[in-house]
Design goal:
255 residues; Serine Threonine Protein Phosphatase 5, Tetratricopeptide repeat; two-stranded antiparallel ribbon; 15% strand
Length: 255
């Protein structure tokens, strides 16, 4: 009898959770449709608020970030547009529309800072790494390892096709090692290295974390950089050309 009651309460609990998820999904879909409608009607500020509500609810998809970036650009918030396009590309790096729009918005940025000279192979490596998300590199690395182990087992346990099994083992283990390098680099670039975008129209970069430090130069919305340290409300940033300084965190969006 107790087992029947346990099963019954478990069944009710599953129904309750499923119902909550269904209601939540309907609410998010409603917000998304309302945001799209506001965008189509030219009410970009309302669209921005609705897309941000979706993100704040925990739903962070490349489509939401992409649409939010479009709304910010239409609302003349170019720094925020670049920020959200970059967030969208972290989730879907090969999306053609996002890459195209990001390149287009960057044409309007004030600061045209060139990267420090990098070796050709370093650029190629970075380009390949950016083709896939962290989850995709993890999946590829795990898959190649699994396939390599299968053919190793076949090589050890079977008498036929040993040369083929050994060759396939070598191929998949080589691919495993290569993708492991890209995976490690991807983990480092997304979890250790923090990146930011200037979202204020103009911001001052100082020699230390405070307004009383020397003004070194000014930066403008849309500029991308790496974040090396944080003290109080100030961030130590490194620009693509090697310049560095302290910037107010309120003027920055974290990618």
């Amino acid at each position: 009898m107790r087992k029947i009651f346990k099963f019954f309460f478990l069944f009710l609990f599953v129904i309750f959770i499923t119902g909550l998820m269904s209601v939540r999904g309907s609410e998010i879909e409603g917000l998304f449709q309302n945001a799209n409608s506001a965008y189509d009607q030219g009410d970009y500020q309302k669209a921005i608020q609705l897309y941000q509500r979706i993100i704040q609810s925990g739903v962070k998809t490349s489509k939401v970030y992409y649409n939010l970036g479009n709304a910010c650009f239409r609302n003349e918030n170019r720094g925020l547009a670049i920020l959200y396009y970059l967030k969208a590309l972290k989730l879907h790096p090969r999306d053609e529309d996002t890459n195209t729009n990001l390149s287009f918005v960057k044409l309007f940025t004030v600061d045209k800072i060139e990267n420090e000279k990098n070796f050709f192979l370093s650029k190629v490596f970075s380009s390949i790494r950016s083709l896939a998300t962290l989850d995709e590199w993890t999946f590829l690395t795990s898959g190649f390892y699994f396939l390599g182990m299968i053919f190793l087992i076949l090589f050890v346990l079977t008498r036929k096709l040993k040369r083929l099994h050994l060759t396939l083992f070598s191929v998949f283990i080589t691919l495993f090692l290569l993708t492991s390098i890209f995976l490690g680099s991807k983990i480092y670039s997304e979890t250790v290295v923090k990146r930011g975008v200037v979202v204020a129209s103009e911001s001052e970069v100082r020699s230390g974390p405070g307004d009383d430090y020397t003004l070194q130069f000014k930066v403008h919305e849309g500029l991308e950089f790496k974040i090396k340290d944080k003290k109080n409300n100030w961030l130590l940033i490194y620009l693509p050309n090697g310049a560095r300084g302290w910037l107010k965190s309120g003027d920055v969006g974290i990618v």
